[in-house]
Amino acid sequence: MTKVRIRLESGDHPSLWATITPMTSNGNASILIAEDDRAAREALVRALTLEGFDVDAVNDGAEALASIKAAAPDLLILDVMMPEVDGIAVCRRVRADGLSIPVLILTARTETSDRVVGLDAGADDYLAKPYALEELLARIRALLRRASTQDEEDSLVGPGLQLDLDGRRAWRDERELGLTKTEFDLLELFVRNAGIVLSRDTIHERIWGYDFGPESKNLAVYIGYLRRKLEEGGETRVLHTVRGVGYVVRDA
């Protein structure tokens, strides 16, 4: 097979070169890229096309929303800083419209608070610029696999819990919980692994795509939010802390 060198550029960041081998094993999954940096956009289109994806690209958020309305892609890659409508606003609009398209955000912003804003807006993953093409491709494949798995089932059941995966709704017995995107993702992860203690590192990687570090209280805050909603009707605890290890969903 022919190998191709792709140059990825990102604003003031150093250029990044990567050697890729053209592939045709991605099932022609469709990807929409919204990136206002022309060089970065064109490099991404070329790289992902060579990997066998069906790629479309636009240069701002307004065009992205119009394209999604015309034909929803299998995956959406958004730059944060774009004219007209930024990437965070696009992500919020997509989720408000009830679309479950996997969303990967690309940005030069690396502060934890910036990542949390993007993930809370409904993004599934977050990759800081500059990035290695191999890592981007791995994250894309992981998101598409996760979406494919979710498409094969529409509900989950745990101890006193029911989850509607398509509608992203959850109930404790007969009481609907009214979860945010991140809370639902956490509960889904726990219910899929009911009875298994999940480490903090595992949860960080599965929900946010990276580890916040041992000093971060981000996970503990979301666990607190989720517990309050799970127990506000006076129900017994099902989301337990295993000291020094992590968290688990199981009967009391």
UniProtKB/TrEMBL annotation:
SUPFAM superfamilies: C-terminal effector domain of the bipartite response regulators, CheY-like
Species assigned in the record: freshwater metagenome
Keyword Transferase (UniProt): no
PROSITE patterns attached to this UniProt entry: OMPR_PHOB, RESPONSE_REGULATORY
GO CC annotation terms, alphabetical: cytosol; protein-DNA complex
Domain called Response regulatory: residue spans: 30-144
Stretches assigned to the OmpR/PhoB-type domain: 153-251
GO biological process, one term: regulation of DNA-templated transcription
Keyword Transcription regulation (UniProt): yes
PANTHER family the record matches: REGULATOR OF RPOS
Gene3D superfamilies registered for this protein in UniProt: 3.40.50.2300, 6.10.250.690, Winged helix-like DNA-binding domain superfamily/Winged helix DNA-binding domain
Full protein name: Unannotated protein
Keywords, in A-Z order: DNA-binding, Phosphoprotein, Transcription, Transcription regulation, Two-component regulatory system
InterPro entries in alphabetical order: CheY-like_superfamily (IPR011006), OmpR/PhoB-type_DNA-bd (IPR001867), Sig_transdc_resp-reg_C-effctor (IPR016032), Sig_transdc_resp-reg_receiver (IPR001789), WalR-like (IPR039420), WH-like_DNA-bd_sf (IPR036388)
One GO molecular-function entry: phosphorelay response regulator activity
